[in-house]
Amino acid sequence: MAQNDVLDIVVLAGGISHERDVSLRSGRRVADGLNALGHRVSLRDPDASLLAFLDESRPDVVWPALHGASGEDGALRGLLELTGVPFVGSRAAASRLAWSKPTAKTIVARAGVATPASVTLPQETFRELGAGSVLETVLAGLALPVVVKPAQGGSAQGVTIVTSAEELPRAMVDAYTYSDVALIEQKADGVEVSVAVVDTGDGPSALPAVEIEPVEGAYTFDARYNAGETRFYVPARLDEQISQAVAEAAVNAHIALGLRHLSRIDLIVDAAGTPWFLEANVLPGLTETSIMPQAITASGREPGDIYAALARAAIADA
After folding, report:
1. How many whole angstroms separate alpha carbon 65 and alpha carbon 318?
2. Which of 14, 15, 19, 118 is catalytic?
């Protein structure tokens, strides 16, 4: 397929997850970038008519811009595999691994990338062992502060930084609002960075790391998607040697999880320059305030060009 061939591309956006609105914004940005290059793009919600539409229309490629469970837990990707229509992004099996934060941490740690100590607690554990004794044991084994987060999900929804024992029960309730399983993780101190990893056919490579500095408090949902609430430094303010270590950690995590085409790896760089893996995102945010478009621009390329190159890579991989 020639680089200047016009592609028939279906961009999927929306869905029914907690991140529907973010997905709609990401999908619109992807569609706009591809339209600007002359491709034939249709933007669709993944509804009851989708599979029949794909079977009848047989587009060249599907570009999922779906955040949350509807796009990242592997279910829809498994169905796309069955349709035989090429699609951008990780396959179903790898998506399932990355979607589970505890599973991703285990796999990435085995690949030699540091990750903070943690414990994973299904809601049932509290019913079986008693909330008081469970939380007592957690506080005895993990020094405060800790980060409580849903074991699945994105955009920092249901995430709480806990600095006192009194805050932990409420944080658990918030996390369980989004998932039946919660992850309690030792809070890593240092510089928060996010690294987009892209593979358009020549192997995965890291784009410039983006340093994240919320104006106030933590990098919450609002800080992610409301302009002006977070300062971004692209590339991150790290020396060359540490920047290289961060890039290697991100690519190693991407490879260890078996991810494909694109991902975003979130890390903390401690005072010694060690990158600590937090989580992997199978479909990074692509909104006007998201990290990946900033990283693409910092690399000297245009987001639309990368989105089109990923579409061609998906066709080549089919």
Report:
1. 19
2. 19
Q: Read off the tokens for 166.
A: 């009194």
Q: What is the pLDDT of residues 249-291, one digit of tens each?
A: 999 999 999 999 999 999 999 999 999 999 999 999 999 889 9
Do residue 278 and residue 257 come from a single domain? yes
Active site residue 19: yes
Domain hosting residue 163, numbered range? 118-186
Question: Both 157 and 62 in a single domain?
Answer: no
The question of whether 304 is a catalytic residue gets the answer no
pTM over 0.85: yes
Query: Is residue 285 flagged as an active site residue?
Result: yes
Catalytic residue among 266, 304, 307, 312: 266
160 and 123 share a domain?
yes
Residue 226 annotated as catalytic: no
